[in-house]
Write a structure and sequence with these properties.
Its main location: membrane. It is a multi-pass membrane protein. Belongs to the MgtC/SapB family. The protein is built from six helices and two strands. It is mainly α and about 160 residues long. It has one domain. The chain has a two-stranded antiparallel sheet with strand order 1-2. A hairpin with a 6-residue loop joins strand 1 and strand 2. Helix 2 packs antiparallel against helix 3, helix 3 packs antiparallel against helix 4 and helix 3 runs parallel beside helix 5. It is elongated and about 65 Å long. The mean pLDDT is about 85.
Length: about 160
């Protein structure tokens, strides 16, 4: 009986057959969570509703959604359908972050929604193994979120 249970458990967890593939999986997921956390920390530091945990989970989830089919051998051309689903789903999540008040000028959450969308794209890049593109995109997004408002603020004064 125990041999059967152990054999079944081994079979269930054997989708990462070698150390190299397991390392690749772990690296991509950890990087997605880390980069999402960087953007989330900036948003949380500014007191926004979608903070570090939200951004980390969005990036991690997006990475996992592309990692699973890729590791199962899905063709790159077919991956576009998976990515379309991620973009659509994140669009709904971002829409929930937008609050429109009575006037058109009084709308909140657009930058948070765009940040969540960008975080998902960074997660997709990590999941597909495009780590340098993900890191560069995170740095650019961080510049838009943290540096650009300071520059715009100087112009307004």
């Amino acid at each position: 009986m125990w041999n059967t249970i152990l054999a079944t458990l081994h079979d269930e967890f054997s989708d990462a057959p070698d150390v190299a593939q397991l390392t690749r999986l772990l690296t991509r997921l950890l990087l997605a969570a880390l980069l999402g956390g960087v953007l989330g920390y900036e948003r949380e530091h500014k007191g926004k509703a979608a903070g570090i945990r939200t951004h980390m989970l969005v990036a991690l989830g997006a990475a996992l959604f592309v990692l699973v089919p890729e590791f199962d051998g899905m063709a790159v051309a077919d991956m576009s359908r998976v990515i379309q689903g991620i973009v659509t789903g994140i669009g709904f999540l971002g829409a929930g972050a937008i609050i429109k008040h009575r006037s058109e000028e009084d709308t909140q959450g657009l930058t948070t929604a765009a940040g969540i969308w960008m975080t998902a794209a960074i997660g997709v890049a990590c999941g597909l193994g495009r780590e340098s593109k993900a890191v560069l995109s995170t740095l650019l997004a961080l510049a838009v979120l943290a540096v650009l408002p300071r520059l715009v603020g100087r112009d307004r004064r």
